[in-house]
Description:
Layout: H1 22-29, E1 39-45, E2 48-55, E3 57-59, E4 64-65, E5 72-73, H2 79-91, H3 101-104, H4 117-121, H5 130-133, H6 144-152, H7 169-183, H8 187-196, E6 205-206, E7 221-224, E8 227-230, E9 245-247, H9 249-258, H10 267-274, E10 278-279, E11 286-287, E12 292-294, E13 297-304, E14 307-314, E15 319-325, H11 333-345
Antiparallel strand pairs: 1-2, 1-15, 3-4, 5-9, 6-9, 7-8, 10-11, 11-12, 12-13, 13-14, 14-15
Amino acid sequence: MPVAAIAFPMTTACGVRTSTLDPQVYALMRDYTGDVPGASLLVLRDGVPIVRRAYGLADLEAGAATTPRTNYRLASVSKQFTAAAILLLAERGRLRLDDRVRAWLPTLPAAADTVTLHHLLTHTSGLLDYEALMDPADPQQVQDLDVLRLLEAREQMYFAPGTAYRYSNSGYALLALVVERASGQRHADFLRERVFLPLGMERTLAYEARRSGVADRAYGYSFERGAWRRTDQDATSAVLGDGGIYSSIDDLARWDAALYDERLLKAASWRLAFTPATDTDDPGVRYGYGWRVSGETLWHSGESIGFRNVIVRYPRRRLTVVLLTNRNDPEPYDLARRIAALAMADPAA
Length: 349
């Protein structure tokens, strides 16, 4: 199926678009400007960028500015891609959403016997958090397979599968392993060949050190003792299923376009992803497959060492805000919603 063109607007020489929203947006984004860790901001209406701007620096040490093509570690925004990979395999009959996970990963403990793929997708599995099982004295990065090995050694569960909600990075790491076993491909390769390239997301990837490189890479920073310090990776940053994808606002515009039609998944599969399957620990938020659902919005944030990101979609309004940042603070969800409110209120946008 052909890739729909994204009509990126004309930009200035530095890749920054002029918009009627710009003065108001600039005021909200002022803290990201200058010689500080920056941000890339995209506002889409009807598939067309009405704001496409970049602020601050992607690499403080090199003095490299951010652009709309800068690639950030998405952290948990990656979960929607892992969920889409599972749904793709389900459409092709390679797996079923009610499959028990131990059918694919039989070394999981017996306590996990009734955990299904649906439970993993919706954070209702009850599996232990792998971060809590890691040796804090070991600086070596864990990968998705290491998550399985950490869980293999424990018979405990937080609760019986399907009886409660607890956000679980463990579940999405296991989903990446299921993608590999059901497809016969490495997770990063499956995403690239079956998701990213078909959608024209040519610079998006599940990053693996020594296997792949990130073009126009943003490095993560934390503000400590009065100065910015590079904190780009930690011991969990190599896990792909829960947060290992790098992408840009330009590529995420292509992703957003695909969420409205059937070029990647059938409409029934998207409905599964976007339909609330469970309450969460926030009374105003429910969870689908890799998406949070709050009223009319579909959204997901991503927080890891040195990065804070969010995508907020208003499908009925055909409006989306993507805000990617390479700093540890602040969380950008509220800021993205304020920018969305400006777009909704501006008749020229």
